[in-house]
Design goal:
Blueprint: H1 3-31, H2 36-58, H3 62-94
């Protein structure tokens, strides 16, 4: 990978984390007035809904969308599982040092 490609990837990674942090900040604000499990379920729902929208919007036709649905679902499920497992590992290693969330348990 060239230095220019590395710089481009680093910038994309920073943008990715910033967007994710924005969603987390919004979820934390919602947790101030709503049950945190409801907020989590809403985030999952929103992610599924947006993923379906993106998949459909990138499909050239309804037939193309239908043909690619199973592959898209498999991709999203695998990506979510990888991310979730990584974050669970991180929380396991720092569990005793974790910051208490800004909402009641």
């Amino acid at each position: 990978m060239s230095e220019a490609d590395k710089a481009t990837q680093l910038e994309a990674d920073k943008k990715f984390i910033n967007i994710a942090d924005h969603f987390i900040d919004q979820a934390n604000q919602q947790c101030e007035k709503n049950d945190h499990q409801l907020v989590n379920a809403s985030l999952l729902y929103a992610s599924a809904r947006f993923s379906a929208f993106i998949t459909a919007s990138l499909s050239e036709s309804k037939e193309n969308f239908e043909e690619g649905t199973d592959a898209a679902i498999e991709f999203y499920v695998e990506e979510f599982e990888k991310m979730l497992r990584e974050h669970m590992r991180q929380y396991k290693s720092t569990f005793d040092k974790r910051v208490t969330p800004p909402y009641p348990h």
